[in-house]
Amino acid sequence: MVHQSKIINQKSKMNKGFTLIELMVAVAIFSVLAVSLGATLRSGLSVWKKGEDATALNQEARIVLSQIARELRHMTAFPGGALQGAGDKIEFYTLKTDKEIVYLTYKPAYVDVDEGKSMDWRLQRIEKRFRHGLEHKKLKTEETVTSFPTEIHFEYAYAPAMEDDSVRWEPQWKDKESYPAAVRVTFSLHKQEDSETPMIFVKTCVIPTGLLVAYKG
User: Fold this and answer.
1) Which of 105, 189, 207, 213 ranks highest by number of CB atoms within 10 Å?
2) CA–CA separation, 85 vs 82, rounded Å?
3) Between vectors from CA 88 to CA 135 and to CA 143, what angle results, nearest 5°?
4) CB under 8 Å to 91, separation ≥6 — which residues?
5) ∠ at Cα 24 (21, 30), nearest 5°?
6) How do residues 141-183 score in pLDDT, each as one tens digit?
7) Residues 151, 72, 189: CA angle, nearest 5 degrees
8) Burial category of 126 from C-beta neighbours within 10 Å (exposed 0-12, middle 13-18, buried 19 and up)
């Protein structure tokens, strides 16, 4: 009988379940693990998002800078003016095809980026086409070529002041009779959610028909 009573008591204890303290300890441990797992997950998602943004910025900068370099490389003379170059804007004639000359403008523009809800700076490309040597207004196109907040700066190569000096870079092209030997483009793209930390890209675009002329301040 005593042995049977002990067995009954043991079964009774086993069927009792967890005490309140044991449940509280289990909940506390689970909460700590859940918070830790959540923080790790958020950190991983943040790193992944930054990597995706950096990839998108690099790809966009590469495409736009390659296009500007290609169009500058094909720069050509045309009656009515040569290259117009300032620090934040550049205008020039270039060969779009073997038989077509277009007049291009690259400049920053403050545009609608969210269906009227917000405005921001983007790089704008304006193309003017010609027929029979005359500008055709109906063939003018404007396009925004960047999808991220953008800053751009142009510098133009001049002959060095001394023989042993390097090329002189200035933010304005003043010679109206010739083209610069090179244009240096500094391109800053900002992440949408972090406009204070831009990614900066620099490309030197060589112009085969350009000249290194003396700078006249």
Assistant:
1) 189
2) 10
3) 50
4) 83, 84, 85, 103, 104, 105, 106
5) 145
6) 999 999 888 899 999 999 987 777 789 999 999 888 888 999 9
7) 20
8) middle
Contacts of 38 (CB under 8 A, 6+ apart): none
For the question of whether the overall pTM of this predicted structure is more than 0.90, the answer is no
Mean pLDDT of 60-89: 89
Does the pLDDT value for residue 209 go beyond 50? yes
Q: In angstroms, what is the C-alpha Rg of the chain?
A: 32
Pairwise CA distance, residues 54 & 37, whole Å: 26
Q: Residues with Cβ < 8 Å from 165, sequence gap 6 or more? A: none
- Helix or strand (DSSP H, E) at 214: none
Q: Alpha-carbon distance 210 to 160, whole Å?
A: 15
